[in-house]
Amino acid sequence: MISRNTAILESLWAQGAIEVERSPLFEVSPVGPVDFDRVEGMLLGLAIGNALGESSEGLLPEQRKDRFGEVRDYPPNPRARNRAVGLPMVDSQLAFWTLEQTNADGRLDPASVAARFAKGPMLAMGEALATFHRNFNEGREWFRCGAPSAGNGALMRIAPVIVPHVREPSPGLWADAALCSLITHNDGASMSASLAFVKMLWDLLTMPAAPGPNWWVETYVATARPLEPGDTYQPFNGIYKEFQGTLTEFVEEKVPTLLAQELPVAEACEAWWSGAFLLETMPSVLYILARHGHDLEEAIARAVNDTWDNDTIGAIVGAAVGALHGRKAIPQRWIDGLSGRTSVDDDGRVSELIDEARKR
After folding, report:
1. Does 147 have pLDDT greater than 80?
2. What is the 3-state secondary structure (H, E, C) of the chain?
3. All domains of the chain, ordered by start, with CATH?
4. Euclidean distance between CA atoms 42 and 299, whole angstroms
C-alpha cells in the first residue's frame, strides 16, 4: 500500500506540477535499524551549526576572523542580553517547526507543515520564503506556493523528515522529502539536492564508521543526477562563471579537482563562493565533509569559519556529521550553551521536541 504522500507525489507528477524526476530512489526502502542517539546527533548538529554561525552570518571569512577570531564557541549575543549562548536562525527554526508538526501529526503532512511555516513569525525571510508566504496567504494550495528558486532554503531544513521513518523505514521517506522541499522551493536543483541529502543522512545514520573522502561527492552525484529535470545554471560568483550546466555536473567537475589539490576549505569555497545559491552551497558542504567529515567539531568549525552563508552551511554540515557521529561526539559545551529556541523566547524547545520524537 503506498503512502498518502506517495499518492500526492504521483498526482503532482501527472500534472507536471513538481520539478523533480521520477527516479529508482522512490522505489527503494531505506535500511534500518537506526539508533535514535544518532538521530538526536543529527538534529542537535543542525541546531548547533546554525547557532555557531548566527552572530557572524553574511561576513566573508577574513572579515569574520578579524572581528571574532576563530569561532569555536558561541560569542556574547545582543539578542540574549550579551550572554554567550547559541541562538537560532530561520534554518533551524523551520527545521524544528517541521519536527514539531510531524510530532503532532504522527507523520509528515506537507499541508500542515506549510500552514505552520505560514503562521510564523519567521526569524528572517529571504526572497524564496517571502514568495511562499505571500502565495500561501493569498490562498494558493500549499503545493503551488513554492518559489522556482535554486537557493538553499529547503536543503537547510530537510533533515527532520527522516524522524517519522526511523522505526518503520519505507520508500515513503522519499515522497516526504520531495513534498517537504516543494513547500518553499519548486526547483530542480533544490529538490534533487534535498532528496540526495536525505538519502545521504540515512546512510550516515547507519554507518559504523566515517566514509572515505570520495564517498561524499560520488554518493551525492549518483543520487541527485537521476532526480534532476535537466535545468541548467550558471555561477554568479567565483572563478567558474563560464560554467553552464546542472548542479550535479558542477559538483562532479569542480569539487574533486580542488580536493585533489588539498586546498584549505576557505580557498576552495572562495573558488566557487559559498552563498545561498546551491551552486555555491552544495560544493561547499561536500568539500567540507570530504575533508573533515571524520571529525565532527572540525567539520562544523570549518563550515562556520570558512564560508559566507555560514549559519546555513553550518546547519547542513552539522546535520551530516551529527548523523554520522551521534550526540556523544558533540562537544558538551556546545550542547550546554545552545538556547534551544525555535522563536524569540522559547528556550529549551529543541530538547522538548527531540524528547517527544524519541518517545513516539
Report:
1. yes
2. CCCHHHHHHHHHHHHCCCCCCCCHHHHCCCCCCCCHHHHHHHHHHHHHHHHHHHCCCCCCHHHHHHHHCCCCCCCCEHHHCCECCECCCHHHHHHHHHHHHHHHHCCCCHHHHHHHHHHCCCCCCCHHHHHHHHHHHCCCCHHHCCECCCECCCHHHCHHHHHHHCCCCCCHHHHHHHHHHHCCECCHHHHHHHHHHHHHHHHHHCCCCCCCHHHHHHHHHHHHHHHCCCCCECCCCCCCCCCCECHHHHHHHHHHHHHHCCCCHHHHHHHHCCCCEHHHHHHHHHHHHHHHCCCHHHHHHHHHHCCCCHHHHHHHHHHHHHHHHCHHHCCHHHHHHECCCCCCCCCCHHHHHHHHHHHC
3. 34-359 (1.10.4080.10)
4. 14
Nearest to 240 by CA among 280, 190, 284: 280
pLDDT tens, position by position, 202-231: 999 999 999 999 999 999 999 999 999 999
CA gap 265, 322 in Å, rounded: 19
Cα four-point dihedral sign 83, 89, 91, 92: positive
Which residue, among 59, 58, 93, 52, has the nearest Cα to 74 in the 3D structure? 52
CA angle 212, 298, 192 (to 5 degrees): 55
From 192, 179, 265, select the one nearest 222 (Cα to Cα): 192
With 0.90 as the threshold, say if the pTM is over it.
yes
Task: For residue 221, count other CB atoms closer than 10 A to its CB.
Answer: 18
Q: What is the pLDDT of residues 14-56, one digit of tens each?
A: 999 999 999 999 999 999 889 999 999 999 999 999 999 999 9
What's CA 119's distance to the chain center, in Å? 21
Reading the block at residue 225, the C-alpha cell is 543526477
Q: What percent of the chain has pLDDT over 70?
A: 100
